[in-house]
Each structure stands twice: as structure tokens, then as C-alpha cells.
Fold this protein.
Amino acid sequence: MKTSITMAGTGRATEVRELKKDEFGLAEKLWEEYRSQKNDMPDERIFAVFDNGSLAATARCTRHPDGLEMDCVFASEKFRGKGYARLAVQALIEACGFEQIFIHSTIVLISFYKTFGFVPIPEDKLPTTIRERFLFCFGEMAGCNVCPMTRTGVA
């Protein structure tokens, strides 16, 4: 999926698309602002929003042995407030949303993810490999400012 938009009244070109594997370094550079995340799973897809050619936001979908996980929903500080994270998540859902998706939402972003159909779930309802990414919370994700959520796949 590739979508090009010109933001009304700004003349700024916005492009929304899935990154090619050889472009994953662009996401890693952006993620230096976001806990220095790395592309480290073989079954990842990264959806991106570009503002006048600059990578502005991402959303990553990773296939684990027991489920899909969305993470790395991030907009660069200089591009915040433009709806770019929303565009990246929407692109991910359009491409991957036919299957159930799990996320670890921060508490303050629960309402944002609910707009995409995600609902909070108990921690023990997360697939094992996805839950294990947050073992440092010792079974208390809320204490780590995290809420497990899921979105049922839609055909």
C-alpha cells in the first residue's frame, strides 16, 4: 500500500507506505529517539509516514510464533501533532488487520488505540512470546505503565 497526500493549505507532501527491507535502517535511525529500538526480528513489517521525504512516523508489525504484535508506533518530536502516528497505525491495520493483533499500550494511549478497535485484556491473555517481552514487569504491567490490548482480526 502506498498513499500520497498533500496536506491542505500547507503544500507539504505526505506519503504513507510499507518500508522495504533495505529501508529498515531509516526506521532504526528514527527509533534512536524512541528507546533505541532495533529491527531484530526476521518477520517484521514497518509502516511509515514521510513528510516531504523525511521519515516522520512508524508502526511495526512483528509475527511471533504465537501471534502478531504491533509496536514502535512512534512519531518524531518535530512531526508530532500532525496525525502521522495515526496514519502509520491505519496502514498497518489495513495490511495486517485480518489477523488478531496484540499490543503493549502505555496507559495514556489506551484511548488512542481504542479508536482502532483495540480493547484492554488481562496480561495472561497475551500470547506467551509477546508477554515475555515484558517479563521485567514481574506480572504487573500496570505498574510499568503498560496495558495489554488486542484487536480481533477482521476479514
